[in-house]
Amino acid sequence: MNKLPLYIFNIGEHPNKSSMAQSAVYEHAKYVYTQGNSFPLKSNRESFDGLYRKLLEISEDLFDGLRLLENNKRTCWAYLTNKDFYRGGIHDHMRTSVINAVYYLQVPKTKSYKEGGISFYNEENNEVFCFKPRAGDLIILPNHLKHQPHQSHTDDFRIAINMEIMCEPVQW
């Protein structure tokens, strides 16, 4: 099996986890999903901006000489799933980033490993790896790596914060 171009860190639970989770749940409840499965976070900006800065700091260490492009947006997006809400699908981020990242703000306990996890796929859409995140995990992946979040069948939300970096190409 080939090694996946994937970095997984546990950077710890965010000190403002509770207020960030409340913001995400509130915005999710009022967001009108017309396409896609995530939404841009607009409240609690200071906490989410700090999380994005942490992603940049780690990415600068991973990719020596990281150079951001002018069209880089420091937006954090939220993806929530529980037993009552799931919008999934295998996808990549080829059109919107060079580096993609997911921070797991809240991960409820589930009965199975795959439930609430994230799977990664090859070019033929065959699953090659499934990861069960913990709160505080940060996954950094290239824009072309296909992936899909799995539903969490709990009352509590699994809250993932998605971030993207537009930069000059980097070596994975």
What's the gist of this structure?
The chain has helices at residues 17-30, 45-62, and strands at 7-10, 39-40, 76-81, 99-106, 118-121, 127-131, 137-142, 146-149, 158-165.
3D structure, described in words:
The structure is a single chain. With 172 residues, this protein is α+β, with helices and mostly antiparallel strands. The protein has one domain: Sandwich (Jelly Rolls). It is 19% helix and 27% strand. The chain is built from two helices and nine strands. A six-stranded antiparallel β-sheet has the order 1-7-4-9-3-2, covered by helices on one side. Strand 5 (118-121) and strand 6 form a beta hairpin. The model has no long low-confidence stretch (mean pLDDT 95).
Question: What composes the largest sheet?
Answer: 6 strands, antiparallel
Low-confidence runs: none
Count of individual helical segments: 2
> Architecture, CATH level 2?
Sandwich
Category by helix and strand content = alpha+beta
The coarse overall form would be: globular
* Lateral strand order in the biggest sheet: 1-7-4-9-3-2
**Radius of gyration, in angstroms, nearest whole number:** 15 Å
- Please give the number of β-strands: 9
Keywords for this entry:
172 residues, alpha+beta, 3-stranded antiparallel sheet, 6-stranded antiparallel sheet, globular
Would you spell out the secondary-structure blueprint of this structure?
Layout: E1 7-10, H1 17-30, E2 39-40, H2 45-62, E3 76-81, E4 99-106, E5 118-121, E6 127-131, E7 137-142, E8 146-149, E9 158-165
Antiparallel strand pairs: 1-7, 2-3, 3-9, 4-7, 4-9, 5-6, 5-8
